[in-house]
């Protein structure tokens, strides 16, 4: 879906489909360079990372096996708590494997730092993170992120896999959601 079909739901388009594509291609070249021996297992975090995974995996010029996890990052309430529950676990055994976590966005960083440690504790050879977006001013914990598409301001964004109440994931671009859409909550 194009932003023009969303009326005044969005305030600003931060990154267009084309910008996202170009940046992902740059990241793919870095990733290819960083794994010269064996391609990493790509681990996508459902559901937001679906678009990033689809585009990154096809951009990579090596075998790109994909696996998926679903986690709930929030405990009670709407604030990220660092309490993470696995809703769907990996199919693959990652013992001795290089793992590249593919994410849509890092906000507080609590989910990703938990996930990275969790995968390391299963005996992965290495665990790196690739995220399309990051909100550096929202970080609450240090997370070592190897590949970042774009740093963005602390605003609620949707599109390219990111949702508000499950909507807007199929918007091609990344855009700031207009407050009137969620202020009625
Ligand atoms: P952390 O633990 O880094 O949580 O705070 C990251 C997760 O929070 C969600 N998230 C967003 N989803 N627009 C969204 O649609 C946003 O601006 C946004 N910020 C955080 C998302 O699920 C991410 O995986
Ligand atoms: Mg997510």
Task: Describe this structure as you would to a colleague.
By secondary structure, the chain is an alpha/beta fold. The protein has a domain at 22-150: Rossmann fold. It has helices at residues 17-34, 50-59, 110-121, 179-182; strands spanning 10-15, 41-46, 66-74, 80-88, 98-106, 126-134, 147-151, 157-158, 174-177. The strands form 2 sheets. The protein has a 6-stranded mixed β-sheet, with helices on both faces. A 3-stranded antiparallel β-sheet has the order 1-9-8. A hairpin with a 5-residue loop joins strand 3 and strand 4. Helix 1 crosses helix 2. The radius of gyration is 16 Å and the shape is globular. It starts with 9 loop residues before the first strand and ends with a helix. The mean pLDDT is 94. The protein binds xanthosine-5'-monophosphate (XMP) and magnesium ion. Residues 48, 73, 80, 104-112, 156-158, 162-163 line the site of xanthosine-5'-monophosphate.
């Amino acid at each position: 879906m194009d932003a023009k079909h969303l009326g005044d739901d969005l305030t600003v388009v931060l990154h267009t489909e084309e910008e996202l594509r170009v940046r992902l291609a740059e990241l793919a070249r870095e990733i290819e360079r960083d794994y010269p021996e064996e391609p990493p297992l790509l681990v996508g975090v459902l559901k937001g990372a679906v678009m990033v995974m689809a585009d990154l995996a096809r951009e990579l010029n090596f075998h790109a096996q994909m696996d998926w996890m679903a986690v709930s990052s929030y405990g009670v309430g709407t604030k990220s708590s660092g309490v993470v529950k696995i809703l769907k676990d990996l199919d693959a055994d990652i013992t001795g494997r290089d793992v590249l976590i593919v994410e849509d966005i890092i906000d507080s960083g609590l989910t990703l730092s938990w996930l990275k440690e969790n995968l390391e504790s299963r005996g992965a050879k290495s665990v790196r993170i690739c995220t399309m977006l990051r909100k550096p001013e929202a970080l609450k914990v240090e997370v070592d992120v190897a590949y970042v598409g774009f740093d963005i301001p602390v605003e609620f964004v949707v599109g390219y896999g990111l949702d508000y109440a499950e909507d807007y994931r199929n918007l091609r671009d990344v855009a700031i959601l207009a407050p009137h859409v969620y202020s009625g909550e």
